[in-house]
Amino acid sequence: xxxxxxxxxxxxxxxxxxxxxxxxxxxxxxxxxxxxxxxxxxxxxxxxxxxxxxxxxxxxxxxxxxxxxxxxxxxxxxxxxxxxxxxxxxxxxxxxxxxxxxxxxxxxxxxxxxxxxxxxxxxxxxxxxxxxxxxxxxxxxxxxxxxxxxxxxxxxxxxxxxxxxxxxxxxxxxxxxxxxxxxxxxxxxxxxxxxxxxxxxxxxxxxxxxxxxxxxxxxxxxxxxxxxxxxxxxxxxxxxxx
Amino acid sequence: xxxxxxxxxxxxxxxxxxxxxxxxxxxxxxxxxxxxxxxxxxxxxxxxxxxxxxxxxxxxxxxxxxxxxxxxxxxxxxxxxxxxxxxxxxxxxxxxxxxxxxxxxxxxxxxxxxxxxxxxxxxxxxxxxxxxxxxxxxxxxxxxxxxxxxxxxxxxxxxxxxxxxxxxxxxxxxxxxxxxxxxxxxxxxxxxxxxxxxxxxxxxxxxxxxxxxxxxxxxxxxxxxxxxxxxxxxxxxxxxxxxxxxxxxxxxxxxxxxxxxxxxxxxxxxxxxxxxxxxxxxxxxxxxxxxxxxxxxxxxxxxxxxxxxxxxxxxxxxxxxxxxxxxxxxxxxxxxxxxxxxxxxxxxxxxxxxxxxxxxxxxxxxxxxxxxxxxxxxxxxxxxxxxxx
Lengths: 242, 389
Prior knowledge:
The structure holds two protein chains of two kinds. The longest helix of chain A has 16 residues, at 163-178. Chain A has helices at 43-51, 92-102, 108-117, 133-145, 163-178, 190-193, 213-220, 225-239; strands at residues 5-14, 17-23, 26-27, 32-36, 58-63, 66-67, 77-80, 151-155, 182-187, 198-203, 206-211. Chain A has a six-stranded mixed beta sheet, sandwiched between helices. In chain A, strands 1, 2, 3, 5 and 6 form a five-stranded antiparallel beta sheet that branches. Chain A has eight helices and eleven strands. Chain B is built from 17 helices and seven strands. In chain B, a hairpin with a 3-residue loop joins strand 2 and strand 3 (66-68). In chain B, helix 9 runs antiparallel to helix 16 (341-355), helix 11 crosses helix 12 and helix 16 runs antiparallel to helix 17 (359-388). The model of chain B is unreliable at 162-173 (pLDDT under 50). Classes of the chains: A alpha/beta, B alpha/beta.
C-alpha cells in the first residue's frame, strides 16, 4: 500500500462558500499528518469529507485503498470529533464498549488495554455526565481507538485541555504510530505541529504548503512555524486567487 | 430591585423569542389551526346517517278513514328528515348491511304494523342498531321516535285521531310511540366511555412514545453522537431500527399497563381478544417511535419538540375518528384522516373491543399501520442524511 489516504482535486462548496477548494492529499502509513490552519480554514470539513460524512462537490477520496464513501472500511477507521461526542447517561466503559461493538465487537482484554492507555481505570464506571472536560476528552479518544483502527482522524483533539494532558495525548499518539497506525490531526496550535511527521498549512480551503516542520520553516526562511504560516499566507494573498 | 435590570432582562427574552421565528409563527398559527378544525367539526352539518328500512307493513282499511299505511307514513316522515338517508332493505340482509357499515340502523315494520297499532293504540317500532357508537345509537332512537310522534300527530289532524285515541285511562301508562331497540354489536350496557376508551388508549400510547423518541433522537443529534455513529459502519436504517426496538420495549410495557388498567380498574367493556388489542396498540406505538424520530429532524431543541403536539398530535385526535366518525366529517377533511395512523388504530381497536372482531376482519387496518411504520422508518433514515450533509 502506497498511501493510507489519497484525495484528488477535492472540492466542497456550501452555496457560495468554498470550504474545501481543491485539495490533493497523500498520507503514508504510520505517519502523523498535521492539518494546520486558523478557525474556518476548512480543516473540519476536510476531515468530514475524508470519512464520508460529507459528499464532495467534486473530486475523490480513498481511504486504505477503498474509494469513499464505503461503510465497511469505517470499521478500520477511528474518528474523534472536535467536541466530545459521548452518551452522558452511560459510564465510560459502556460508551467505549458501545463504539467497539458497532465496529465489530471487542474483547475484554482490548477494552482494559485501551482504558489503561488513556489512564481511566479509576473512572471507568463513572457516568460520563460526572466527568471533567479533560476526562471526557480522554474517553472520547478511547472510543475512537477501541476497535484498533489502522487510521485515526482527529479533529482538534487537544483543544481545551491542560498542558499535562496534552503531553499525555502526544504520548498516546506516538505509541499508536509505533503500532503502525496512521494519524491525521487537525489543530490551530502551531507548537503542536512540531511533533507531526508532516504538515499541511490550510487556509481558505486550500493547502498553502506541505512538508515537515523543518522543511516549511526553511522554505519560508523563518525561525518559527507561526511565522512560516504567516509568510505563506501572505504569499497566497499577494499571488491572488483567481 | 431595579426596573432597569428587569427591563433589560425582558428585552433580552423578547429578542430571543422573536429570533425563533418558528415559535412566533406557531404561537399565532397553532391555536388558529386547532380552533378552525374544532369549529369545522362541531359546526358542520354532519353527513346523513344511512338508515335502512324494511317495510313489510300491509296497512289496514278503516271504515272511518279508509286506507292507512302507517309504515309508509313513518318512512315518508323519516325521508323528509335530513339527518337520515334511507335505504330500502329486505329483512334477511339487515345484519349484513349493519355489519359492513353501509347502514347504521334499520327500522323494521312487520306485516301487521298498522293493525297492531290500531289494536294497541301504540306504534311499536322495531329498531336494529349497529350499536358500537352509543351517541349515534341514541341519536337514531331519538330521531326515529320523533318522526313516529310527528306522523301520529299528523293522523290526528286528518281525523284519524278518533281511531288513534286511547280508551279510557290507558294513555297515561304508555306513549303512543315506543322503540324496541336491539343491537348488532356492543349494545345498551356500553356507554360513551366504552366507545372512547379504545382510542383513548391508542392516543396515550402514541403520544408518550412520540415524545420519548423525539427527545432522545434529538439529543443524539445535538450531543454529536449521531455524527460519531455515522462514522462507524452502522447504517442509518440500522440506527432507526435500533431506536425502534430499544424504545419499543418500553412502549410495550406502557401499552400493557394502560390496557390492564383500562380493562380491570376502569372496567371498560370489551368483546374481542386482549392479545389482539395489545398487538394493535403496540403497532401504533411503533409508528409513534418512528414518527418521533422523523419529527426530531425538524426540531432544534426540546422546546421545538413540544411544538409538535399541536401540529402532529392534536390533528390526529380531531381528525382520526376519535370523537367524530370520519365518514360523518366534511368530505374535504376526510382525506386527512386516511394519512393518520390513529385513524387505522381507532378502527381496528373499535372493531375488536366493540364488535368482537378478530384478526381476519381487522387485518387491512393492521397492514396500513405496518405500512405507515415502514414509510416512517425510511423517511427517518433519509433525514439523517440531511443532518450530516
